[in-house]
Amino acid sequence: MASTIVTPGQRLGYAQDFTAGSGTYERDGLLYASVVGVKKVLKDATSHLETITIVREKEQSAVPSVGSMITGKITKVNPRFASVSINVVDSTPCREDFQGVIRVQDVRATERDKVKIYNSFRPGDIVRAQVISLGDARSYYLSTAQNELGVIFAKSVAGETMIPVSWQEMQCPKTKVIEYRKCAKPF
Amino acid sequence: MSRLELLTPEGLRVDGRRPNELRKIIAKTSVLAQADGSAYIEQGNTKVLAAVYGPQEVRHRMQILHDRAIINVEFNVAPFSTSERKKRSKNDKYDNGIKLQTSQFPRSQIDIYLQVLQHDGGTLQACINAATMALIDAGIPMIDYVCASTAGCIDKQPVLDLNYLEESSDSPELTVAILPRTGKVNLMSMESRLHVDMLESVASLATEGCEQIHTILDAVVRDTTQHLKDSLMQ
Amino acid sequence: MKRSDGRTEATQLRAFAASQSLLNRADGSAKFSFGESTVVASVVGPAEVKIRDEKMDEATVELIVRPAVGFPTTKDKVLERALRQTVEPTILSGMMPRTLIQIVVQIEQVDGNILSTAVNAISLAMLDAGLPMSSLVASVTAVIDPQDNILLDPSSQELENATSVHTFAFDNTSSYNLLLSHSAGAFSEDQYFSCMEACKHASERVHAFIRTAVEKKIQKEYQQLQSS
Amino acid sequence: MDRKRVNGPELSVVPVEEHTEEKQILDSKERRLDGRGIDDIRPIFMKSGLISQANGSTYMEFGNAKVVCAVYGPRQMKKPSFTGKGVLNCEIKFATFSCKKRRAFQRDAQEKEFSQILVQALTPAVRLDLLPKSSIDVYVNVLENDGTSSTLAAAISAASVALADAGIEMYDQVAASSIAYVQNKILMDPSALEEESEDGSLVVSYMPSLNEITHILQNGNTESAIANKAVEQCIDACSKIYSVMSTVLLQSLDTSDK
Amino acid sequence: MPYLSQAERDYITEGVQSDLRADGRGRLDYRALVLETGIISQANGSARVRLGDGTDVLVGVKVEIDQVEPDADNVGKVVCNVECSPSASQQFEGHGADDLNNELTQALQRVLGGPQCGINFEKLCIIKGQQCWIVYIDAMILDYSGNVLDTIFMATKAALFNTRIPKTQIQDLGDGEFEFEVLDDVEDAERLDGIENIPIGVTLNKIGTGHIIDASPLEELCTEAKLTIAVNKDSQICGIQKGAEGGIEPGLMSEMIQTAKRIGQSLIQQLDQKLQDEEQQVDEKRLNGENIEKLGFFAMV
Amino acid sequence: MVREADPSLNEKQFVLQSLKEGLRVDGRRPYDFRSLQLSFHSDFGHVQVQLGRTRVSAKVSAEVVRPRADKPTEGLLLFNTEISPMASPAFEVGRPSEEEVLISRTIEKALRRSRAVDTEGLCIVAGEKVWSIRVDLHFFDHEGNLVDCACIAAITALLHFRRPDVTVIGEEVTIHSLDQRNPVPLSVHHIPICVSFSFFDGGELLVVDPSILEEQIREGDMTIAMNIHKEICALSKAGGIPLEMDQIIRCSKIATTKTAEITEMIQKALADDKAKRQAK
């Protein structure tokens, strides 16, 4: 039975024969499926046990977790932090935005205490950041302290889409005005 | 209702009391386990339970006062308390004007919850007395007791501590709360018509009532503490 | 042709009356009445806005209608929406981002066309408050009575036995573009357009009246300045 | 007085049809009014994935009762409070036209309690520890109510399928069924008519493969022996419903592949 | 709600396995109980139950005359309502208590609302198709420390035992018209009919694999599943309701139902016994004229 | 919704200092009321009252309803005192503010509890149909002392209101329109007038009809409602600085004189309006 479709709670086998892959869980020595999807039995070199994973058919909407890469829009900026509304988590768009915050000490890795937030982000910019902790009740804590993290799209005062000229400057093609942002290295 | 005889010719009232006589008052403090301070008071058939929580953190950021504590009073009536049963809305706030050393607890909140178990007239006065006892039981510093009592006027005769019958007949009802040491008036509220010249006599009768209540409450507090002291000494 | 309250022509409007800056706590206020139906409007703004309704690039316009009698019901909610959608485009809210403009409309007396009286009152109140506006708004109501003739500025009696009611609002730019069109009842298409035409002419008169009222007010203020 | 809606006259009463003769719930051959045996369930129709906006959704019909369920989430919590585990919120609403007596727009005490029961019945089955700080919202709308306790059971089963349809990780599906005690007989999946003359009712929600009862609700008095027998009957019915739920989920896969 | 650390949780769970609890009780022991009836003079019947040093419930029963329901025109009605007063705990302030109130009210109404509670509803009807008695049962929770539902059931049974309904005289005005008149003489007010088989509730809290009775607040916090079973005098089950958010294995459930029945029996006997004694004492006192001193809030456990 | 900005410290000192010398910021003497203007609208029972710059209008309307079960022969008297943000940005649409609760309780006590309007006379058919009189108060401008202004507006509107005449033949009730039969006034027994006091400097200094500035600075306040027969209809001193008893007695004396003045002003205004209507 190459690919059988399983529903949550369906028994897959004994715990000692397989290791639990994603979409499965182990209880009282038995392995159960926890999602709707196609059962795949993988043989991998390292451990002699085969691992059972369930390839999900029904995509669960994404939830930011520690370490996931997110893309979001800056909504508010104040001296201590910039608040971000998270739209995409690890390349899966979430149906409703989550609330995130980039604290001033997490903007960049170098000279962390000389950061001026208004020279790093402006409301309306699109940024790529990484979740560093679950944060507090209201928002997740994000960080842009890597080269490929930061502003990926920004509009100039004149309303044109700006082009990054250095890791901290962006230029408006029409008015040639330089504005300061913490830019992401385009790859 | 038929004009029943509220004041008999020889000056006795419906429940046999003389005009300037208070109803029987029994009070007890620390009645509840969960509350920081609690008190239970019975004035005649009016029974009120008061619980005090605080001083503690303010729940709604908006209301914080930087220089003193805010006092939040919630008052509700048991459905079986009056003759006919009705469920009251929960938040008819009573401003009881209790004088506290609120300046000692800035940016904090003190909650007073009043629960009327049985209502036979004079609910406001019983609530104020119960709240005072509960605050004392909670150990919150106060300038003075706040003692309240009601007085009315039936056929031109000032009468002390009205019960439900006297209150619901159209006689005026004056509630006075004073600080017994200085005799100053902290709260005064009067309903339905009373001639201005009678105000002085009715108000002074009410103040006398407050002083009597003060002695009773003070006695209760003193002997509970005495009782506490003895049990600790053993 | 005789109308119930003594007016002779169909297009005759009742006497306007207006007074401005009658309140002290509001930034701008005005009272406007078509004959008996009177509305007082007050404008506060630009003021602090709640985080919840804050808009990044423009001012949030909040409009509250208080009925003459009783508590606000669904009828007043509909009025609120119609008024806000009429008035909001004329305010240059882009100049005051992340602020609140609060307009309160208190209906004093109802005698026929409340919606257009309110629009005119708000116009005057916003002028009095000195809000940056792209144009003014003036509104007139027309009804079609059972005999199929168009009556302007109906009283409550005429409103009751009308077959259809149309309220129009125009701005005072040269092209008189339409800001509000609110119709109820059964009517034919050309009846609708002829009502619009009649209301357009009538609203020119209302605009003229607003202009003279404001001019008088400002002249009075200059005199006070010179005399003091 | 609800100021946000146009209210009809305050006191309007359901017209009382005068009593037709007392209908016989069970005829001699143990057949019920609609021809079912005492322990047959009404035919169930179920389809998932019908609401575009929701993460997961189900439409369920059993006999002529109809229930729609939508699942939103996992998403940000409305009243944010830091919780290590995810939070499940359920709201059940009987449409105003769904029962014999018209229901109000706001949720009344019974609907609030049913929503509470829905949460208690579903929580043991959902892996909430994988979704910290987020909430899963389940909204159930009853379009036609043919027996309140069987509608509650249907709501639980429909919600469980909707959760699976939303791709949320679950320990097991929760199936629920209900019975009515009529003249000390146990009638499976009672309709509204049978409910009017019942002495008591029982609703059991059960996780078949983990063999755990997640919720039980009984009113009316019975001997404990009959109560135990009734619980067993409900558990068998739950396994039958469980198979229907699994096939529905499998069917929804084929359609989504196309 | 107090927050429970993992260590405390394990301590309590281990304790329950070895049949030993923080306050020294065994798994199936109740805390000490104070019960008193007839405290509220203006109610037709009242009772107050104080469990241990914490949970304190006051139930007032009032009887009023009401129109009969169109579709059930020869029976009276029972309406229950539970309210948590904010004096019980800080979180009941304002709207904090609404969900708990609703849950407790529905649980009480489910058991006492219908014929299963044993009250003879026909006797509550004064004139068929017109007027009937409506019994309002209002419970107030004045102090909260665990096992509230059982305390409410006990207090309600005591309050109904104490309730007296005024006698009514029906005059026949001919052609089917009836008129009735309430005699407000207290002496011949009679007791509710059928109150001896009013059920009481027994709540079992499943912690780990064992289950306990009469849980304290901390024990309630680490309860995975709660089962409340209403049992009456002749050990019939009048209602089962599961609370909290864990699963129970079917075998364990039927075992829990048996234990609940056993405990329910003995509790009802003790409760009836206590109510009878108290009633006798009150009648004796009233006979020889002493005034009846109600302890009310002065009774301390 | 912005909370009222507290007056600055030197503003407070300035007001207190001038009060100690018996002067007030707007030039009045401590016991003076601000100028009172009453203007009537064309329809009956609609009056606008201006007390200095505080402006409140009251509008009375009547409808026929089924009476309450426990009082079949009594009409209803309802007050709607919802304050809109027009009066001051501090008032919110949803939640009634503390001040609004105080105003509505004082007016209830002064007008309803003291039986100013005879509700027995409002009964048309006992148990079936009674008149329900609703008084809607619109608050335009909050420049201090909303209570007095609202109370004067309410009682004047009730005096000015005329309800349609009604004839009852057996079960059949006919309500005559305004032009068929001239309308009937309400039977108002007495005219309660509220007088508000504010206290400063530990209760020694006393001021009548406080302005918005004085209201923000005061340490205690009291409102006395009286009628010209020298009967106190309501008195409420809820909290604030404790007062000597004789201070309160002195306030009640002041209130008697003020009530007489205001009642006389109301009656004159009503008379003028009646004359104007006759002339028309």
UniProtKB/TrEMBL annotation, chain B:
One of its GO terms (biological process) is U4 snRNA 3'-end processing. Keywords: Cytoplasm, Exosome. GO terms for molecular function: RNA binding. The keyword Cytoplasm applies. CDD domains: RNase_PH_RRP41 (cd11370). Its main location: cytoplasm. It comes from the Eukaryota. Gene3D superfamilies: GHMP Kinase, N-terminal domain. It is found in: Cytoplasm; Nucleus, Nucleolus. GO terms for cellular component: cytoplasmic exosome (RNase complex); nuclear exosome (RNase complex); nucleolus. Residues 21-141, 144-208 form the Exoribonuclease phosphorolytic domain. Belongs to the RNase PH family. Component of the RNA exosome complex. Specifically part of the catalytically inactive RNA exosome core complex (Exo-9) which may associate with the catalytic subunits RRP6 and DIS3 in cytoplasmic- and nuclear-specific RNA exosome complex forms. Exo-9 is formed by a hexameric base ring of RNase PH domain-containing subunits and a cap ring consisting of CSL4, RRP4 and RRP40. PANTHER family: EXOSOME COMPLEX COMPONENT, EXOSOME COMPLEX COMPONENT RRP41. This is Ribosomal RNA-processing protein 41.
UniProtKB/TrEMBL annotation, chain C:
One of its GO terms (molecular function) is RNA binding. It comes from the Eukaryota. One of its GO terms (biological process) is U4 snRNA 3'-end processing. It is found in: Nucleus. Residues 12-132, 137-198 form the Exoribonuclease phosphorolytic domain. Keywords: Exosome, Nucleus, rRNA processing. GO terms for cellular component: cytoplasmic exosome (RNase complex); nuclear exosome (RNase complex); nucleolus. Belongs to the RNase PH family. This is Uncharacterized protein. It comes from Umbelopsis ramanniana AG. The lineage of its organism: Eukaryota, Fungi, Fungi incertae sedis, Mucoromycota, Mucoromycotina.
UniProtKB/TrEMBL annotation, chain D:
The keyword Cytoplasm applies. GO terms for biological process: nuclear mRNA surveillance; poly(A)-dependent snoRNA 3'-end processing; rRNA catabolic process; rRNA processing; U4 snRNA 3'-end processing. GO terms for cellular component: cytoplasmic exosome (RNase complex); nuclear exosome (RNase complex); nucleolus. SUPFAM superfamilies: Ribonuclease PH domain 2-like, Ribosomal protein S5 domain 2-like. Residues 41-169, 172-236 form the Exoribonuclease phosphorolytic domain. InterPro entries: ExoRNase_PH_dom1, ExoRNase_PH_dom2, ExoRNase_PH_dom2_sf, PNPase/RNase_PH_dom_sf, Ribosomal_Su5_D2-typ_SF, RNase_PH. The keyword Transmembrane helix does not apply. It comes from the Eukaryota. One of its GO terms (molecular function) is RNA binding. Pfam families: RNase_PH, RNase_PH_C. Its main location: cytoplasm. Keywords: Cytoplasm, Exosome, Nucleus, RNA-binding, rRNA processing. Coiled coil: none annotated. It is found in: Cytoplasm; Nucleus, Nucleolus. Component of the RNA exosome complex. Non-catalytic component of the RNA exosome complex which has 3'->5' exoribonuclease activity and participates in a multitude of cellular RNA processing and degradation events. PANTHER family: EXOSOME COMPLEX COMPONENT (PTHR11953), EXOSOME COMPLEX COMPONENT MTR3 (PTHR11953:SF2). Belongs to the RNase PH family. This is Uncharacterized protein. It comes from Umbelopsis ramanniana AG.
Automatic annotation (TrEMBL), chain F:
The lineage of its organism: Eukaryota, Fungi, Fungi incertae sedis, Mucoromycota, Mucoromycotina. Pfam families: RNase_PH (PF01138), RNase_PH_C (PF03725). One of its GO terms (biological process) is nuclear polyadenylation-dependent rRNA catabolic process. This is Exosome complex component RRP45. It comes from Umbelopsis ramanniana AG. Residues 33-164, 190-256 form the Exoribonuclease phosphorolytic domain. Transmembrane segments: none annotated. Keywords: Cytoplasm, Exosome, Nucleus, RNA-binding, rRNA processing. Belongs to the RNase PH family. InterPro entries: ExoRNase_PH_dom1 (IPR001247), ExoRNase_PH_dom2 (IPR015847), ExoRNase_PH_dom2_sf (IPR036345), Exosome_comp_Rrp42_subfam (IPR050590), PNPase/RNase_PH_dom_sf (IPR027408), Ribosomal_Su5_D2-typ_SF (IPR020568), Rrp45 (IPR033100). GO terms for cellular component: cytoplasmic exosome (RNase complex); nuclear exosome (RNase complex); nucleolus. PANTHER family: EXOSOME COMPLEX COMPONENT RRP45, EXOSOME COMPLEX EXONUCLEASE RIBOSOMAL RNA PROCESSING PROTEIN. The keyword RNA-binding applies. It is found in: Cytoplasm; Nucleus, Nucleolus.
